[in-house]
Amino acid sequence: MNRAIAWSLAVLLSVTAVAQESKPKFDVASVRSATPGETGGRVQFLPGRLRAQNVSLDFLIQQTYGIRDYQVVAAPEWRAIIGDGYGRRYYIDATGDPSANEQSVKEMTKTLLAERFALRLHTEKRELPVYQLNVAKGGAKGARAADGPPGGIGIMASGWIRGEGVTPLHFVNILSRYLDRPVIDGTNLSGVLDFDLTWTPQDALLTGNAQELGFTGGECPAAFADLVARYKLKERNTTCPNIFVAVEEQLGLRLEPTRAPVDVLVIDSVSRPTEN
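^ thats the sequence. predicted structure below, dont judge the formating
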């Protein structure tokens, strides 16, 4: 091997080693399997710490990469490892720099997933079913010019969100959390939205406990009125139909099914974790 080639190879190996070492990592990490059949679970990205309690690898990936379940693409052999099921949940407790913020902890978690679960993945765009948010026949309600300070969305309760000065793009991102597919903006609205959206959550309808939660006959729970009185809020909607009806009746917008390119995360390979 001549000198030039040897020098180039040494530089390449050095750069690769530095790149690998520069990946943010936890100082200490514990991974163990949860007891099969255990219920409940959550993931917390705390300052300098990851706490995952009784969660599937699939759910941890979604929380770490900020995606939904329909954005995870995996072959059956990999789905069998990451999917939620009997004996496929974990407890993970990892700590690092206590000053690390949430995003930094998520980057550390990506490294942990690569090292302990041998997770290899890539992102790409695929055409998937989506909902497109369009302006309904009567026109958008609460739309106005963006002539004030930036607004935001308040999640008042399950089935109730309130927005002030919200851009359509921000709104569709919020709506995507409550639906079984992504929402894209087709409104062509140049301003912002002020709204009060109340609906019966889909999970309450699917589990059949809507009435138990107070969503009776399309009406909102009495707890909503209690919140209005307690915090002296402005008047709100009193009806809670399904979210598709609510968006059209209360906001003058429509959720219409279509297909569009969506960012997805493709699992290339993964394995059972090394535990300790």
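The chain is about 30% helix and 30% strand.
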